[in-house]
Specification:
5-stranded parallel β-sheet, Rossmann fold, 4-stranded antiparallel β-sheet, 6 helices, 199 residues, binds adenosine-5'-triphosphate
Amino acid sequence: MTGVLAADDLAARRGGRVVFAGLSLRAAPGEALLLLGPNGAGKSTLLRVLAGLLRPAAGRLTWEGEPVAADAAAHGARTRYLGHQDAIKPALTPLEDLSFWARLRGGDPGEALGALGLSALAGLPCRTLSAGQRRRLALARLMLGDAPLWLLDEPTLGLDAASVARLGVLLAAQRGRGGIVLAATHLPLPLPGAREVSL
Ligand SMILES: Nc1ncnc2c1ncn2[C@@H]1O[C@H](COP(=O)(O)OP(=O)(O)OP(=O)(O)O)[C@@H](O)[C@H]1O
């Protein structure tokens, strides 16, 4: 499940305004990149471009040397994107949520619940979850199916210390099996040896 992500001379525009230009990066199997910069610098925008959700205004984005735009479905399948919104249906339970995604992607919903400390909440409607519990459920989805590219926008927002440590275990496992992690953050993340990309 390994591969190299490369961006060359990327530019992105939001609302008609250039947010960044001339941005290049490369992430090899097992690597982690931290996207840093002030509010509005373009970190979320860059993650959306890398996820294939936003077309770059200029530049080239490749996976294993092939343009990702040439096969958007393949890029979607290899990517797990965690945005600011947790995209959780309030009527479903955490187990139902993860079971839905497991049917699409594979993996074990019970294991994913346990990894984020959510087993005791498995049968509650998601509308009753706290903000941090919802974030943990969104993070638990990362465990379903092996995707080589994880793109995470403020993954620790709202998490308690124990959950940050649990996330650290997930991130280390992803890198250990040759996956890539790119994370935008204003907070310290459990990503030892991550390279920093400043916007
Ligand atoms: N949907 C949109 N329409 C127009 N402009 C947008 C849109 N989304 C973001 N922008 C603008 O693009 C710029 C970059 O926003 P982005 O969310 O990528 O920044 P960020 O670095 O992630 O910020 P933060 O640290 O606050 O999360 C900002 O100036 C923002 O106002």
